[in-house]
């Protein structure tokens, strides 16, 4: 299975998937840490995280998958939402909370 197929399988097998550097307990960059905090603040449950540092294929492949050059990347219901900045804006406007509530429904 090629890397794009693996990514597609990951983002469609769980309602909320966060590609990040490190783990939620030990984020390896500030943006990944911020993304985790935003999801926590939204009360997001059952978030699947993928540590791109432990899988170089995924690390490169995810950038092509969403045509988005940076990590973290958030997917909700298989759709690319954005990185830390977009997550922060959506959170401040209340959009991210609604999206996450709908994903759990």
Automatic annotation (TrEMBL):
<keyword id="KW-0411">Iron-sulfur</keyword>
<dbReference type="InterPro" id="IPR002109">
    <property type="entry name" value="Glutaredoxin"/>
</dbReference>
<dbReference type="Pfam" id="PF00462">
    <property type="entry name" value="Glutaredoxin"/>
</dbReference>
<dbReference type="InterPro" id="IPR004480">
    <property type="entry name" value="Monothiol_GRX-rel"/>
</dbReference>
<keyword id="KW-0001">2Fe-2S</keyword>
<keyword id="KW-0408">Iron</keyword>
<dbReference type="InterPro" id="IPR014434">
    <property type="entry name" value="Monothiol_GRX"/>
</dbReference>
<dbReference type="InterPro" id="IPR036249">
    <property type="entry name" value="Thioredoxin-like_sf"/>
</dbReference>
<keyword id="KW-0479">Metal-binding</keyword>
<feature type="domain" description="Glutaredoxin">
    <location>
        <begin position="16"/>
        <end position="81"/>
    </location>
</feature>
<dbReference type="GO" id="GO:0015036">
    <property type="term" value="F:disulfide oxidoreductase activity"/>
</dbReference>
<keyword id="KW-0676">Redox-active center</keyword>
<protein>
    <recommendedName>
        <fullName>Glutaredoxin</fullName>
    </recommendedName>
</protein>
<dbReference type="GO" id="GO:0051537">
    <property type="term" value="F:2 iron, 2 sulfur cluster binding"/>
</dbReference>
<dbReference type="GO" id="GO:0046872">
    <property type="term" value="F:metal ion binding"/>
</dbReference>
<feature type="binding site">
    <location>
        <position position="29"/>
    </location>
    <ligand>
        <name>[2Fe-2S] cluster</name>
    </ligand>
</feature>
<dbReference type="InterPro" id="IPR033658">
    <property type="entry name" value="GRX_PICOT-like"/>
</dbReference>
<comment type="similarity">
    <text>Belongs to the glutaredoxin family. Monothiol subfamily.</text>
</comment>
